[in-house]
Amino acid sequence: MRFFSDNAAAVCQPVLDAIAAANSLDTAYDGDGWSAQLDDRFSALFGTRVRVLWVPTGTAANALALAALCPPYGGVICHREAHIQNDEAGAPEFYTSGAKLMLADGDGAKLAPDTIEALIARIRKDVHQVQPHAISITNATEYGCVYTPDEVAALGKLADKHGLGLHMDGARFANAIAHLGCTPADLTWRAGVDVLSFGFVKNGGMSAEALVFFRTDLAEASLYRRKRAGHLLSKGRYLAAQILAMLDDDLWLANARAANAAAALLAAAAGDRLVYPVEANEIFLKVSADEASHLRDLGFDFYDWGVGEARLVTSWDQTEDQIRPLADAIAAL
Amino acid sequence: MRFFSDNAAAVCQPVLDAIAAANSLDTAYDGDGWSAQLDDRFSALFGTRVRVLWVPTGTAANALALAALCPPYGGVICHREAHIQNDEAGAPEFYTSGAKLMLADGDGAKLAPDTIEALIARIRKDVHQVQPHAISITNATEYGCVYTPDEVAALGKLADKHGLGLHMDGARFANAIAHLGCTPADLTWRAGVDVLSFGFVKNGGMSAEALVFFRTDLAEASLYRRKRAGHLLSKGRYLAAQILAMLDDDLWLANARAANAAAALLAAAAGDRLVYPVEANEIFLKVSADEASHLRDLGFDFYDWGVGEARLVTSWDQTEDQIRPLADAIAAL
Amino acid sequence: MRFFSDNAAAVCQPVLDAIAAANSLDTAYDGDGWSAQLDDRFSALFGTRVRVLWVPTGTAANALALAALCPPYGGVICHREAHIQNDEAGAPEFYTSGAKLMLADGDGAKLAPDTIEALIARIRKDVHQVQPHAISITNATEYGCVYTPDEVAALGKLADKHGLGLHMDGARFANAIAHLGCTPADLTWRAGVDVLSFGFVKNGGMSAEALVFFRTDLAEASLYRRKRAGHLLSKGRYLAAQILAMLDDDLWLANARAANAAAALLAAAAGDRLVYPVEANEIFLKVSADEASHLRDLGFDFYDWGVGEARLVTSWDQTEDQIRPLADAIAAL
Amino acid sequence: MRFFSDNAAAVCQPVLDAIAAANSLDTAYDGDGWSAQLDDRFSALFGTRVRVLWVPTGTAANALALAALCPPYGGVICHREAHIQNDEAGAPEFYTSGAKLMLADGDGAKLAPDTIEALIARIRKDVHQVQPHAISITNATEYGCVYTPDEVAALGKLADKHGLGLHMDGARFANAIAHLGCTPADLTWRAGVDVLSFGFVKNGGMSAEALVFFRTDLAEASLYRRKRAGHLLSKGRYLAAQILAMLDDDLWLANARAANAAAALLAAAAGDRLVYPVEANEIFLKVSADEASHLRDLGFDFYDWGVGEARLVTSWDQTEDQIRPLADAIAAL
After folding, report:
1. Which of B57, B151, C158, D170 could link B147 by a cystine bridge, Cβ 3.0 to 4.6 Å?
2. How far is CA B105 from the centre of its chain?
3. Residue B258 pLDDT grade (very low, low, confident, very high; cuts 50, 70, 90)
4. How far apart are CA B85 and CA A303, in angstroms?
């Protein structure tokens, strides 16, 4: 059983069904009937007027968001361990035409207002230094930690004070909401988020993420940027249909709860071995090389995370029955 | 019945089936078993060793190809009516980091050696002028015309003489091959093509195109560029599976033949109204506004093309029975 | 005697003197006392509040101007023979991060409202096509023709109607003003110009051009772009001092008048050989290869301009005595 | 008396004289007789065949060098305090079209092989992470420390092992050579340096730096990049003449020795207050706010450097008589 990544999981059946159901002649690009529903559906979900663009990857969503918030000569403050810094191959620099990522630290890959303030304070306000134009946070973070609405709001306030945009990389936004039990509104625009990358692919989707603009004035230019980046699929209805299927009956939330529950089961078994609190669907364990090897011998695959640690990611489709053997194996180490 | 674009057509069943069949846990990105087959499958098809990357759109394929062939300070020679110039929102400029498209003319959106030679002759060989580094042609062209292997070879020879790369935008490559009856090899690498955007989406696919490198040394950097552009889908197996389904039993060729046959039927009916020879699946008709209106009243939709012309595009899924009424209507104008 | 380019002329003495006079310790970059005067001096010259940045080249001035007016995904309308298209090696594409130059025709390298309207009319208002964001004109043009204030105002009105910025490449702005006898204000901001590249190097300067923002809100970001492009010289006072010397006693105007007078002398001699009216300091002559050869044998150097034409450019430092022999030689052909 | 920066110093007389002497008609851009000498003159200085381009700023030199060594999707390893990271407003990202600077630590802003090895070891060799393509070091460093030929060679060896280019930002290269007493060859190409930004502006020049390619194959494309960046001044002879004047009789070395000697005088007075060894012309002092204030009251100006430190930079034109009062004042603190 594999715990490498929720990226590797299968696609959930309603999404596949929606793709099949969309298989008729329609208008190309995003002129179809499915795409046309997105703004309204997400506006209802967030309780405010939003503009939404589908894109095929989280990297595209993040990079388009940053390009909307930061000029080529500006900077984006993010965590040193942020996905946009470490795992997107320079997409932010590409899409922003060369903006600089400005790295800050924080436990569990979370940024806090004081570290950002300190970073900003070190930047001279002259033309020789790149000036920050935006902050990007990941929720849930790359270490499976979750920002609360209050924590996001503190960053939103700081962003506002300094005239910075605020982007949330929500590749695992569903997992964060599932953990918090709050409304999507409380975790985003009410807390000052301007643009959200709302992930579906890690959560049972196939090839569609939603780029949600709470600052709706930023959406128009992003339509051009999306096309220019080659992300306006000609048969876009198959992406829109996936997202709509995930919104129906809050499937996105149900899937995230399942993945979180699987992670919680492992966390309970792991006890003191946990490196970070398990708040979403990622578990970081302290394990020796021998222990890791033992778990692999039992048929569980996962990534080593540096020396003496392992990363396990649970998925929407892993049931308690499936997870239990690993939980037992961890507890028995 | 709609003749706006083959982009708007449905996805063929084997592709949908392949997506469903790929729906199991596997490695993320392009580390899966389906993606791993692409190099071999296309190498067999082309009779030479190639490297292949899937991407979700033709624009991404084209732009990545041009970035592989042209530095930021260079130029790409293409037809004034080329898709990369007119319909990709500046993607070539984006992916090449600012290279310049150098526009040449030619009937049916086809480039000929002499017009390219003339264009090159006008460029001073100094640092003040952008120097060409590549030629990009579209086959079949934006006007449904097809370059023969000899015509491509003449351009390949010219490219070689001037040290230029040669890219073929093959959004309708299948239609060109179906028309010519030649081998894919004869129309590409044997004629000097370095990189091919091999289109599947217009031909019954859903969201996967193949970027084929005959100059295999160019592929490695393109892997980084693809990721950096946000085009490395995390569940890439669903793209690879589509392409493999299209290659099985030459489905790509069968689909293209069907679309071409539908176009031929309309062409036969159109007679002198044809603006260009119909060699693929696009028909450009001289029609008055009244005639266009009449056809629409009968239920046939299509684009006006400037004043006094109309563009109709046939698709892989249009049968003779379905096309016949339009052919009759055109003949009766 | 050489008539290749006003670029090749010497630097006028007051500029050299100003450089020498600036040779004392001062603040680096643009924090010095000379640079500090520019805004006020140009505001007085133009009769309105402007913001001014020195840069070492016209290409830098133009490219920074376009970057201020056009986003990476946009387009800039210019003449097919514009310097920014043909002689700046892709600088506009570089500085704008990939915007597209949209080429229009017009006699004497001048754009007219109707040709621009026709160009705009051909662009579909959808995301697949690059949308224009700015117009750039050159005054005097690359063929030595001059836009009148009314002609500029007509373009300014058109730009306003379509929400486009208006840039004037004034590499030979001084020559245009010298020809027209109008105020700098009438030829620029009163006619709708947003940004002007005000050239000094071709007109007796050494290494300083002025980028003049009539839309002062655009200047701030340009300060960052200038530094980021490596154009914020650390000893900027030597550039500012050059420009101030050119403004003193309207030296810029006197120099331009001298160059124009030299050109007028040649134009009078050339009669029917003139390809374009001579309104600034460039003369385009119809001459056979033998005639060109003859002139060169007499010691006059210049560029051939295609077949059967020659380009001669006069400079600020060419006196009537010096020019007369060439005028006579042309008349005697 | 000001110790803010060697950037603020005056221009030395031979450079001014050379500018005046170059003031005649000549070929524009870099086609003149002065520019034509640069390759030979620097080849002689370095004892190997080099290609040299003048540019007006060190930022332009550095950014062009990095663009020559690193593709848009790559990374450049440099010190966290490097000028290219902190004081060039994102120029490296601009010129490379979005490459990423990868920051390493080290005392005195010097990089060491082991820290670079550790940085490289942390980078996964997959397409999700930006891969390093070059190393950039500054010699003398931003803290006035000097790499020895052996230290550079160790980095050159490491660069070679990993297939990385090696760039040296030599804004104060002259000061480094003056300190070491070695040959320019030993500190550069013999130690594995591929490209050098050889600074003259901080050392008595006005507006000309030399970009020196030891890997001569990289020069050609850089000619295009220079023009495209607006750095090919039309009256380039005034830049070439400055550099030639600096090379004559090793004026560059004499000037650097003078600046270093001035710094050594201050260093001797400073004793334990020194934060870094003084090896070039920069002095970092531990001083309290009161002490700094006292020095300023005496008429000495300089930058505070964080809390409790001050930076003083000496210049080529500061004599012992001029420096002595500050040395005494520091000693008397």
Report:
1. B151
2. 19
3. very high
4. 44
Q: Determine whether the interchain pair D233/C4 forms a contact, defined as Cβ–Cβ distance below 8 Å.
A: no
Radius of gyration of chain C (CA): 20
What does each C-alpha distance from A100 to A72, A266, D88, D91 come to in angstroms? 8, 38, 12, 10
Q: Nearest to residue D64, comparing CAs of D266, D212, D269, D282?
A: D212
Mean pLDDT across A252-280: 97
Q: Which two tokens stand for residue A167?
A: 């982007």
Cβ contact (<8 Å) for D224 and B98? Answer: no
Write down the pLDDT at residue D222.
98
Nearest CA in chain C to B73: C90
The arithmetic mean of pLDDT across residues C13-18, rounded, is 97
ipTM of the predicted assembly exceeds 0.90: yes
As a residue count, chain C comes to 333
Residue from A319, A300, A325, A322 nearest A310 by CA: A300
Strand order in the sheet with D51-55: D51-55, D209-213, D195-198, D165-170, D131-138, D74-79, D100-104
Chain mean position to CA C203: 10
Give the pair of three-digit tokens for residue D121: 């070891």
Out of C75, C87, C97, whose CB is closest to B98?
A: C97
Those residues of chain D that have pLDDT short of 70 are: none
User: In angstroms, what is the C-alpha Rg of chain A?
Assistant: 20
Give D277: exposed, middle or buried? Use CB within 10 Å, 0-12, 13-18, 19+. Answer: middle
Lookup: tokens for C170:
């004034």
Which stretches of chain C are assigned E, i.e. beta strand? 51-55, 74-79, 100-104, 131-138, 165-170, 195-198, 209-213, 282-286, 303-304, 309-313
Per-residue exposure over C216-253, b if at least 16 CB sit within 10 Å of its own CB, e if not: eebbebbbbbbbbbbbbbbbbbbbbbbbbbbbeeebbb
Q: Which residue of C has its CA nearest to D22?
A: C10
Which DSSP symbol is given to A317?
Answer: T
Nearest chain C Cα distance for residue D8, angstroms: 5
pLDDT in tens, C158-177: 999 999 999 999 999 999 99
User: In this structure, what are the phi and psi dihedrals at residue A28, rounded to the nearest 5 degrees?
Assistant: -75, 170
**At a CB cut-off of 8 Å and minimum separation 6, what does B249 contact?**
none
Burial of residue B163 (number of CB atoms within 10 Å: 0-12, 13-18, 19+): exposed
Can you spell out the DSSP letters for B279-308? -SSEEEEE--HHHHHHHHHTT-B-EE-SSS
**D91–C7 CB contact, under 8 Å:** no
Strands C303-304 and D195-198: unpaired
Please give the sequence-ordered ranges of beta strands (E in DSSP) within chain B, or none if there are none. 51-55, 74-79, 100-104, 131-138, 165-170, 195-198, 209-213, 282-286, 303-304, 309-313
Hey, are the CB atoms on B131 and D98 less than 8 Å from each other? no
Eight-class DSSP state of B165: E
Q: Which residue has the tokens 């800039």?
A: C76
Whether B284 and B309 have beta carbons less than 8 Å apart is answered as yes
Which residues from C are below 8 Å from D201, CB to CB?
Answer: 233-235
CA distance D100 to D131: 9
Question: What pTM does this model have?
Answer: 0.97
Eight-state DSSP code of residue D2 = B
- Which residues make Cβ contacts (< 8 Å) with residue D212, sequence separation at least 6? D42, D46, D50, D51, D52, D188, D195, D196, D197, D198
Determine, for residues D93 and A99 on separate chains, whether the beta-carbon distance falls below 8 Å. Answer: yes
Q: Searching chain B, which residue's CA lies closest to the CA of residue C85?
A: B129
